Amino acid sequence: MTLTKHARAILALGLPLIGSNVAQFAITLTDAVMLGWYDVEALAAEVLGGTMFFVLFIMGSGFAQAVMPMVAEAEAAGATVQVRRVTRMGMWASLLFAVLVLPLLLFAAPVLRGLGQEPGTADLAGQYLGVAGWGIVPALLVMVLKSYLAALERTKVVLWVTIGAVVVNVVANYALIFGHWGAPEMGIRGAAVASMLVQLVSVLLLVVYVIRATPEHELFVRFWRPDWEALGQVFRLGWPIGITSLAEVALFAAASLMMGWLGTLSLAAHGIALQIASLTFMVHLGLSNAATVRAGRAMGRGDAAELKRGAQVVVGMSLGMSLLTLIGFLGFPELLLGAFLSPTEPERLAVIAVGVPLLAAAGLFQLADSAQVMALGLLRGVRDTKVPMVIAAVSYWGIGMPVSYGLGFGLGWGGFGIWAGLAMGLACAGLLMTLRFWRVTLPRIERGAPPLG
Predict the structure, then answer these.
(1) Structural domain tally of the chain?
(2) Less Cβ crowding at N or C end of the chain, within 10 Å?
(3) How far, in Å, CA of 144 to CA of 11, rounded?
């Protein structure tokens, strides 16, 4: 395939995935926007509660992420039975993880108070998670089914189901947060109920589609029967992915905690800036998912040349998006931040003032973040996950966290210093993972040897 054909193939697969990721993130985004218009303290509590949920969710989704390259490789090799085995055991692993972490979500308020958060905000976050926490069970199943369908290049249905979930979330939030259409005014608890409803609707729609559209795989036939060999395969590939994702997400969660030490306004500004940066990051995540599928299929065919050319194209696409993002964050910060706050909010100008330098830092670290997520997508596609896990842990927690704390509190730079430390950790991870793929893993595959790690 030429580079142009690779670009078309990546976009055909990646655009629905990008749209799905943006739509999925829009669920969280609408929660933040509506709660920001409802009450700044409720927004700050949702930032805390949502961050805790997301940390555990991302860790558990490592098993779902493992399903994607395994199904792509098996499908390219014509191994239909293997597709069913790894997908089914991916759901098993995800359910087991959800059961283990559910108590942490349901009893989150004491944990958050123990981490130094303001008692009122921590209690509100606990109320949110007391309802929304149950959603981790369907949410992880949704991730497995999306990975399975993406690996089969059935990405359009993933997009449409996610868009439908956004619509349900907006309607439910409008009714339950503010008390419209005869519903009770529940505030942050209304957002939690809406999120839970969305997860349930999403998993039901995907299960119905899978049963009807891919009957040859029989995913739910004798679902209760264990397949220990396949479960072991999913676990061995998935746990390093989960730990890698946890290392990055926990870094941002720790940043949220540090911003909470600076006060409610700083935490609210941090939450808004993080929402904006995360929204644009969904483009890179979608391209990374496409890279994983394309790399897995190239491995299934034993085609190292196509793997290399496809990698060059997808990395170039991600870099172009990063530069556009940087221009937007530096050029229009007040407009972006102001969209999350009511014009009548008394603290509106103060929150925006805190958020402007955070967006400037976000534009810089997104260059590094896009590099690391693209390298991760390619490495996962060829089942190289253990060394990237070590790189992530060292970069984020050996560099990013100490630098964030040192700049934010040691030098007194406040929120900007915390975010500058995040950028340094991400830059280190991006550089090392990129070198890992291009200088170590890809040359081994080109020589016909299996990837290390």
Answers:
(1) 1
(2) N
(3) 22
What's this model's pTM, rounded to 2 decimal places?
A: 0.78
- Determine the Cα–Cα distance for residues 104 and 100; give it in Å rounded to an integer: 9
As given in the structure block, the two tokens for residue 228 are 């220990």
Question: At a CB cut-off of 8 Å and minimum separation 6, what does 101 contact?
Answer: 56, 59, 60, 136
Neighbours of 440 (CB within 10 A): 15
- Confirm if 311 and 380 have CB atoms less than 8 A apart: no
Among the listed residues 10, 243, 205, 41, the one whose alpha carbon sits nearest the alpha carbon of residue 128: 41
Q: Is residue 452 in a domain?
A: no
Q: Is residue 194, in this structure, part of any structural domain at all? A: yes
Judge contact between 159 and 23, C-beta under 8 A.
yes
Asked if residue 453 is part of any domain, the answer here is no
Domain residue limits at 414: 3-446
What is the end-to-end Cα distance of the chain in Å, rounded?
29
Does residue 127 fall inside a structural domain? yes
Distances from the Cα of 220 to the Cαs of 73, 148, 198, in angstroms?
Answer: 21, 13, 22
Q: If we measure between CA atoms, which residue out of 198, 357, 271 comes closest to residue 36?
A: 271
Q: Which token pair is 271?
A: 């939450």
Tokens describing residue 107: 């009893």
